[in-house]
Structure formats: C-alpha cells, structure tokens
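Tokens for chain A. Residues wanted.
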C-alpha cells in the first residue's frame, strides 16, 4: 500500500444535495420549501406561533424575579485552602485575602468577594480576610489557632455614580 493509494471506504462521504437546480434533480422548483407564503421565505417565521392556539410561553404562569442588587461571592472550602497551602501556592504566614487567592490560582476571579465555607479541616494557623464565612468555617479556623476577619461588602452594583 502506498500513501497515494489511501482512500475512504466507498459510501463514507456523501455528496450534499444541490437544491433548486431543476425538476429533474428531485429538489427543483420550490427547493423543498413547500408552497408559497411566510414559511417559503428566508429568515421569516413567527417563533413560538402555534397556529392561533395560545402559545406555550403564554400559557405558563410567570414566576420569580432577578434581584439586581444581589452580590455573587466566589466560594472556597477549607479543604481547598489546605490543599493550596500543602502545595505551597499560598503562604500560610501571610494574610489570605481575595487578591492572594486569585494570584495563587486557587480562585479564577473574586467576583463580589470571597465566602469561606466549612468543608474539610485546617491544619495551619491562618489569618483570613473574606467578605463572608459560615459559622463552621470560622470555628475551624479559630480551632487551628487562626483568625477570620469579615470585610464589609463591596459597593452595590446597581447604584448610579
């Protein structure tokens, strides 16, 4: 077998149908679009139209709302923090805050602040500055001999300047 003799199996590649090329092609005249009217035109179609029946998106009740003042925190668990300390990406003697966590690659971005969660256990004595923490996380840090400082939340996103 030579490199120039390599080819696909017969029938592995199917030629596309060329539409609108005469009656003999089998896809001529209307080109598979049926009769005349809105659906025969390109780009025009009423989305969600059900032939006069009340559309599904109008039959269902409206629910909920989006709070524009909601703050989204990046969450980090204690076990993730301990893994970073073990891997020496974070210095346990320095103050751990959102900027240091992002710089170390533990978090991708800090969003509206960092929230500390209590999964896992901590072996190192840490000084942590976060925007929120659970009771169990604070207890675990203090049990290891460290301290947690809760920072004031960042300014609201919805306020006009």
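Reply:
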């Amino acid at each position: 077998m030579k490199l120039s003799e390599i080819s696909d199996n017969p029938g592995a590649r199917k030629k596309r149908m060329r539409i609108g090329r005469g009656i003999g092609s089998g896809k001529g005249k209307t080109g598979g679009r049926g009769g005349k009217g809105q659906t025969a035109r390109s780009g025009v179609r009423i989305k969600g139209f059900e032939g006069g029946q009340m559309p599904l998106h109008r039959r269902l009740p409206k629910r909920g709302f989006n709070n524009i003042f909601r703050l989204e925190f990046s969450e980090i668990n204690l076990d993730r923090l301990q893994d970073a300390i073990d891997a020496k990406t974070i210095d346990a003697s320095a103050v751990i805050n959102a900027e240091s966590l992002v710089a170390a690659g533990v978090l991708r971005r800090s969003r509206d602040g960092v929230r500390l969660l209590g999964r896992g256990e901590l072996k190192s004595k840490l000084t942590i500055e976060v925007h929120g923490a659970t009771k169990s996380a604070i207890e675990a840090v203090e049990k290891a001999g460290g301290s947690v400082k809760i920072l004031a939340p960042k300014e609201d996103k919805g306020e006009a300047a």
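The helical segments are 56-59, 78-86, 98-104, 135-143. The domain at 74-150 is CATH 3.100.10.10 (Ribosomal Protein L15; Chain: K; domain 2).
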